[in-house]
Specification:
Length: 99
């Protein structure tokens, strides 16, 4: 069976909370699944303010950081633009879920 490859898109604080729960639940049910949480918009500030066990799966949109004048002082992984990462991964066969 092909392993699951899932993108969880979190553009808001509430969506980030759901994405983090979804990621944990997915990894518990399917430990071999590849999971990424792509945070942009308001979710970026929330991600910086609230550490979580799923942060190794988290990718912050650099455009959102710049637009909000935020510094990634936690050293979380950044992507150039959430929209680009979401599109590229979908082309690679990843499943998209908006949290």
């Amino acid at each position: 069976m092909t392993p699951l490859r899932v993108l969880l898109h979190a553009p808001t604080a509430e969506a980030l909370a759901r994405a983090r729960r979804n990621a944990a639940n997915l990894r518990n049910a399917r430990p071999d699944a590849e999971v990424l949480i792509i945070a942009n918009g308001a979710a970026v500030a929330t991600a910086l303010a609230t550490p979580d066990a799923t942060d190794s799966l988290l990718r912050l949109c650099r455009n959102s950081l710049v637009a909000q004048g935020l510094d990634n002082t936690r050293g979380l992984v950044e992507v150039e633009a959430a929209v680009v990462t979401l599109a590229e991964r979908q082309v690679e066969g990843w499943v998209y879920i908006r949290a």
